[in-house]
Amino acid sequence: MAKRIAVIGPNCVACGRCVKECPKGALSICKGLRAQVDAEKCIGCVKCERVCPAAVIEMKERQVAKDEAQKAVV
Length: 74
Fold this sequence. Notes:
Helix content: 25-40%
Oligomer: single chain
Strand order of the largest sheet: 1-4
CATH architecture: 2-Layer Sandwich
Largest sheet: 2 strands, antiparallel
CATH class: Alpha Beta
Shape: globular
Strand content: 15-25%
Number of domains: 1
Number of strands: 4
Structural class: alpha+beta
Order of helices and strands: EHEEHEH
């Protein structure tokens, strides 16, 4: 499994550019509001981060990303 994972910031504009760029189909637009990452598919390749016009995608270490995701659910 990749060491890094894409993390989508709260200011995502749901443009879909990251979805089109992802070679593994790890990104999707959730409810037309923002992108979300499928952790099982994300390989941390950075392609989505590079094409994001809002600059809200960041590659993080998987453990850090997991902790942030858990906080967002609470």
